[in-house]
Design goal:
The radius of gyration is 25 Å and the shape is globular. The chain is built from 16 helices and seven strands. Among the domains are: 167 residues, Beta Polymerase, domain 2, CATH 3.30.460; 193 residues, Poly(a)-polymerase, middle domain. Helices cover 38% and strands 6% of the residues. It is α+β, with helices and mostly antiparallel strands. Helix 3 crosses helix 9, helix 8 crosses helix 9 and helix 9 crosses helix 15. A five-stranded mixed sheet has the order 3-4-7-6-5, with helices on both faces. It has a two-stranded antiparallel ribbon with strand order 1-2. Strand 5 and strand 6 form a beta hairpin.
C-alpha cells in the first residue's frame, strides 16, 4: 500500500475504483501520522470518508486495492470514529435527522434556524446556535440597538469635535473594526473610528517622502529616536524636519481633541496617545444606549489616518456576507480565542482578533468554501460578465490604488452573487458549522506546514513561501496582510507579534480544541440530542459562561 497527496477529482476524472494509476502529487508536505494510521486501519472498508472537510488539495489514495477516499463529508454525521479519535475515517451510515431540518419538522423550516436547515447538525442546533445567538451582537434581539449606538456615537463625536470644519477642516470620521464588519461580540467590543484630516495626511506624506530620500544614517531631529513603521504613526519620518513637524501637528491635534471632549459631560476617561504607532484618542461616551453595558456607555478609539484598517474591515465584511455560515464560524472562533482559550491579544504575544479572522478566511478558501475576492482572474471574469450585460453594472478596476500606492481592489459579496462567476462546490453546500470548526482546528493544528508556508487570503492557497518575508521565523505563523503584502512597499506580517511562548501556546490550544470539539460531536451523535452535552469541553472552547447559553442542560 502506498500513500500520497494528490488533487481531489470526481469519479469520472479519476476513473473506476480499479484504476491503479498513481496520483499526481502537488507538494511534498509530510503526511501526518494520524492520516496514515487511518488509511491502514480502514483498508478493508468499502467507502472511506473524512470526518471533517479537508483542504481540496489533500486527498488520500489507497493504491493496490479497490478502495478510494472521498475528499469531503457532508459534515452532519459524526459517530465515534473507529479505532479512537486519531482515526479520522469511517464508513458512512445513515445519519439521524437533526432537529430543525425540513424533514424532521414535516417539511416546515425551523423558525429559529440561523442558516439553511439542511446544514443543521445536532451539534449546531444544541450547542453552536445558542452560543452564537447569545454573544454575537448581530444575532441578538437587541442587535439593532448596538448599531444605533455606534451611529449615535459617530454623530456625537462629529458634532462635538466639529469634524469637517474648524481645526479638523475637511476631516471625516469613519467606523471600522468589528462594528463595520458586523463581527462584534455583546458587551466585549469597543468602537474603532478612523479620523482622516487632509492637512495631517499631507504632512504625513511629506514626512514619509523626506525620510525615504534622506541619506542613510542622517538625522535632522537632534538624534532623537522614534518608533513607528514607514508611512504610519506619529513617529514615522521623524528622522527629518518634515517628520518632526508632522509629529508636533499630531500631538497638538490629539491633545486638543482630548481637552474638547473632556469639557463635554457626555464623555469621560478621555486619553490622548499621540506617540503610538497609530496615534489614538480613546475614551468613553455615557448614556448612549449601549445594550452591552449596564450604564449604557460605550468605549471608543479614534485613530489618526487609519484608512487601511477601514479597508481591511470592509474586506472581512464582504467575506462574511458570502455565506451565513462564514459569519457563524468567524464569530465562534472569535469567542473561542477571546473568552475560551485567551489567545487573542497581540500585546500578550499571541494573535489579534483581526488576525484570527484572516486564519478563518484562509482555511475556508483552501477548502473552496469561499472564493478569493482579491483574485485578478475572478475580477476579470466579473468585468467580462458586466461588459456582456445590459450596462446596469459597473466594471471593477483590476487595481485600486490610493495615495499609499497599495492595491485595494477586491470584489464584493453582492458582485459574486449576482454575477454567478463563482459557485460553491456541491459537496460543501450542506456542510455544518460544527464540521467547519473541527476542520479549522485540525487544519492549523496538524496539517498546515507553518515551518515553510505563509498564510495569505490574497493568495487563497498554501503556496506562498515564508522566504518572501525577511523577518519571518520558522517556529511561528507568518500571516500576510491582504493589502500590505510582501511585494508592496510596506510589508506587514500579522503574525510577527506572536512570541515563541505565544506560538507554542496557540499550537497547544489548537490541538486541545480539536480533541474537545471531537468529544462534543461524538457524545451528541452517539447518545442523541436528548442526552447531556460534554460540559468540560464546551467550557474549554467557549469559556465558563458558555453553559449559560444552553439553559435546558
Amino acid at each position: 500500500m502506498q500513500f500520497g497527496l494528490a488533487p481531489s477529482h470526481t469519479q469520472s476524472e479519476r476513473g473506476s475504483v480499479d484504476d491503479d494509476r498513481p496520483p499526481r502529487p502537488v507538494h511534498a508536505e509530510a503526511v501526518p501520522w494520524n492520516l496514515f494510521k487511518a488509511a491502514c486501519d480502514a483498508a478493508h472498508r468499502d467507502v472511506l470518508v473524512p470526518c471533517f472537510p479537508l483542504p481540496k488539495h489533500v486527498t488520500l489514495h489507497l493504491h493496490g486495492n479497490r478502495h478510494s477516499v472521498a475528499t469531503y463529508t457532508d459534515g452532519t454525521r459524526f459517530p465515534p470514529p473507529p479505532g479512537g479519535l486519531l482515526n479520522l475515517f469511517r464508513p458512512v451510515p445513515p445519519a439521524p435527522l437533526p432537529p430543525g431540518t425540513a424533514a424532521a419538522d414535516g417539511g416546515r423550516r425551523a423558525a429559529d434556524a440561523p442558516w439553511p436547515a439542511s446544514c443543521h447538525s445536532p451539534v449546531d442546533h444544541m450547542v453552536l446556535h445558542p452560543i452564537y445567538s447569545r454573544n454575537a451582537c448581530a444575532a441578538r434581539n437587541d442587535g439593532h440597538l448596538h448599531e444605533a449606538t455606534v451611529y449615535r456615537l459617530s454623530e456625537a463625536l462629529t458634532s462635538v469635535l466639529n469634524v469637517g470644519g474648524g481645526r479638523l477642516k475637511r476631516g471625516r470620521l469613519t467606523v471600522y473594526g468589528s462594528a463595520l464588519s458586523r463581527l462584534s461580540l455583546h458587551g466585549k467590543s469597543d468602537v474603532d473610528l478612523s479620523l482622516s484630516v487632509p492637512d495631517l495626511e499631507m504632512a504625513q506624506a511629506r514626512a514619509a517622502q523626506a525620510a525615504a530620500e534622506a541619506p542613510p544614517g542622517r538625522r535632522e531631529d537632534n538624534g532623537r529616536k522614534t518608533r513607528g513603521r514607514g508611512g504610519r504613526g506619529a513617529g514615522n519620518g521623524a528622522t527629518t524636519a518634515a517628520g518632526a513637524e508632522y509629529t508636533r501637528s499630531v500631538k497638538k491635534t490629539a491633545f486638543w481633541m482630548q481637552h474638547t471632549l473632556e469639557r463635554n459631560p457626555l464623555f469621560e476617561d478621555v486619553q490622548a496617545v499621540p506617540w503610538a504607532r497609530v496615534p489614538v484618542v480613546r475614551g468613553k461616551m455615557l448614556r448612549v444606549g449601549n445594550p452591552g453595558s449596564a450604564d449604557g456607555s460605550i468605549q471608543f478609539d479614534i485613530c489618526f489616518g487609519n484608512n487601511r484598517a477601514v479597508r481591511n474591515s470592509k474586506l472581512l465584511r464582504e467575506y462574511a456576507f458570502i455565506n451565513e455560515r462564514v459569519t457563524y464560524v468567524m464569530i465562534l472562533i472569535k469567542i473561542w480565542a477571546k473568552a475560551g482559550v485567551d489567545i487573542a491579544s497581540a500585546a500578550d504575544g499571541t494573535l489579534s482578533s483581526y488576525t484570527w479572522m484572516n486564519l478563518v478566511i484562509f482555511y475556508l478558501q483552501v477548502i473552496d468554501f469561499v472564493p478569493n475576492l482579491q483574485s485578478k482572474d475572478l475580477i476579470g471574469e466579473y468585468n467580462r460578465w458586466a461588459t456582456a450585460g445590459d450596462g446596469r453594472w459597473e466594471r471593477r478596476p483590476a487595481t485600486e490604488r490610493l495615495d499609499d500606492s497599495l492595491d485595494y481592489a477586491h470584489l464584493t459579496a453582492a458582485e459574486i452573487h449576482r454575477s454567478g462567476i463563482w459557485r460553491q462546490p456541491e459537496h460543501l453546500r450542506h456542510v455544518s458549522v460544527s464540521s467547519l470548526l473541527l476542520g479549522f482546528f485540525e487544519y492549523y493544528a496538524f496539517y498546515f506546514n507553518r515551518t515553510f508556508l505563509a498564510i495569505s487570503i490574497r493568495v487563497g492557497r498554501p503556496t506562498l513561501l515564508k522566504t518572501a518575508f525577511r523577518k519571518a521565523q520558522m517556529d511561528r505563523f507568518c500571516i500576510e496582510d491582504p493589502f500590505e503584502t510582501h511585494a508592496s512597499s510596506e510589508v506587514h506580517d500579522l503574525g510577527m507579534h506572536a512570541s515563541e511562548d505565544g506560538q507554542r501556546w496557540i499550537t497547544e490550544k489548537m490541538q486541545c480544541s480539536a480533541e474537545a470539539m471531537k468529544k462534543i460531536i461524538v457524545k451528541i451523535e452517539e447518545e442523541g440530542p436528548c442526552r447531556e452535552v460534554d460540559v468540560d469541553s464546551i467550557n474549554f472552547l467557549w469559556g465558563d459562561d458558555a453553559m449559560h447559553c444552553l439553559g435546558r442542560f
